[in-house]
Backbone:
């Protein structure tokens, strides 16, 4: 993803076509090439609990003699070779991948975290993942997940506007491409102008020169990039990106940090609370789902806890009566929200003043460990006429500092390319800077 962002930023061949793939995300109030979900779990259980968690789909006999449906289910999703294959009886799912992109520890069927996810969330977890997979195939979260990659994964090629350097930055694992980085360049209308005094009202106290007034407190990263090479199979159509990445089991703060590092935009958090009756031996598993905006750290949705024994009874009644599965009906509530909030939609026309207040100011006030995503979003909105020419340089200054912004706007194509390369992950042929931080910039 970062290689695509770099190509867009500098004006590489195909940049305009990539810009056309940007969409708007209502729930995040930002444009994006693609949206990524991180999946994590928190668990609360008795300190010495060693038994089965009996999530939804693993039935218990209510007389206290425990029995589970489907035999021994500690092995995770069947048949997987990494990533998330479909749930019980399901089609498709997440094929391939690199062991769930780090996933949960352990797991003996399909790499990474499948066994742990199944053990803790059962049919609830697999249903959520299956629905995310189906929506990914329908381009809800970006066309990049279902589009075949270019031949040999090459991103380089002929020049863009402004005279470019030789060769091109290859995608991770690309054996070819020149050594000169992304060709072409991006010269914003208005060139080296900008507004030295910032927007009317002056700079924010303590802010960078020419800054936005009242920029707000620093916050989280708003990156939509996917981090590094080889992020796992997504749609099964040859894409090297995945719309879902497992970030692990732990505390919320830890999971948010891990999701951010893996380039996720939204954290899907399963909260599992387990208790065991000392009298009957029955295990109660209450699991809720929360969604978090990773950029702001705010919770945006909660699905009320689902009780395993109540759901077991309700599903048995529904099955006998030929009614809809109550679990599916419960998950419907989650996806009614996600479809409104996180499905990528055509970019609505917004005024430059509205974009400045609702997106640019919050964006430049946050820390950006890697500024590529933020700069690319600004570049896209400028291409749509929603960021004024005179505001463009100021926005870049606020994200990467005055010195680097001047290098970008006033330098030649080679200087811009070298600057952007420092923000790219290092590949096997030693291209890219290999870091997540920009050089010489102390991000606020």
Residues:
């Amino acid at each position: 993803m970062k290689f695509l962002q770099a190509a867009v930023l500098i004006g590489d061949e195909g940049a305009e076509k990539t810009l056309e793939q940007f969409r708007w995300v209502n729930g995040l109030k930002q444009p994006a090439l693609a949206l990524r979900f991180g999946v994590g779990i928190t668990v609360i259980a008795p300190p010495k609990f060693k038994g089965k968690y009996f999530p939804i789909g693993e039935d218990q006999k209510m007389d206290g003699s425990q029995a589970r449906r489907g035999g021994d289910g500690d092995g995770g999703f069947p048949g997987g070779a990494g990533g998330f294959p479909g749930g019980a009886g399901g089609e498709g799912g997440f094929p391939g991948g690199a062991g769930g992109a780090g996933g949960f520890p352990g797991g003996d069927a399909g790499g990474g975290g499948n066994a742990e996810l199944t053990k803790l969330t059962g049919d609830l977890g697999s249903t959520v993942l299956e629905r995310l997979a189906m929506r990914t195939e329908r381009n809800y979260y970006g066309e990049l997940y279902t589009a075949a990659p270019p031949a040999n994964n090459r991103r380089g090629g002929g020049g863009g506007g402004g005279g470019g350097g030789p060769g091109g930055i290859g995608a991770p694992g690309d054996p070819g491409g020149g050594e000169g980085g992304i060709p072409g360049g991006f010269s914003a209308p208005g060139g080296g102008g900008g507004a030295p005094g910032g927007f009317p009202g002056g700079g924010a106290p303590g802010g960078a020169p020419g800054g936005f007034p009242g920029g707000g407190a620093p916050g989280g990263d708003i990156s939509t990039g996917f981090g590094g090479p080889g992020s796992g199979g997504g749609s099964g159509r040859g894409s090297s990106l995945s719309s879902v990445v497992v970030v692990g089991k732990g505390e919320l703060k830890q999971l948010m940090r891990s999701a951010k590092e893996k380039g996720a935009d939204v954290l899907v958090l399963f909260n599992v609370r387990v208790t065991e009756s000392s009298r009957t031996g029955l295990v109660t598993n209450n699991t809720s789902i929360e969604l978090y905006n990773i950029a702001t750290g705010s919770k945006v949705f909660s699905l009320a806890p689902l009780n395993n024994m109540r759901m077991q009874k309700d599903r048995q009644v529904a099955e006998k009566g030929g009614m809809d599965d109550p679990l599916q009906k419960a998950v419907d509530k989650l996806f009614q929200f996600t479809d409104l909030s996180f499905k990528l939609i055509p970019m609505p026309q917004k005024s430059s003043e509205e974009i400045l207040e609702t997106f640019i100011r919050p964006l430049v006030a946050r820390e950006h460990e890697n500024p590529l995503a933020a700069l690319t979003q600004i570049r896209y909105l400028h291409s749509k006429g929603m960021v004024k020419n005179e505001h463009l340089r100021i926005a870049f200054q606020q994200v990467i500092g005055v010195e680097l912004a001047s290098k970008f706007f006033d330098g030649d194509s080679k200087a811009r390319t070298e600057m952007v390369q420092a923000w790219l992950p290092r590949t096997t042929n030693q291209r890219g800077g290999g870091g997540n931080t920009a050089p010489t910039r102390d991000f606020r």
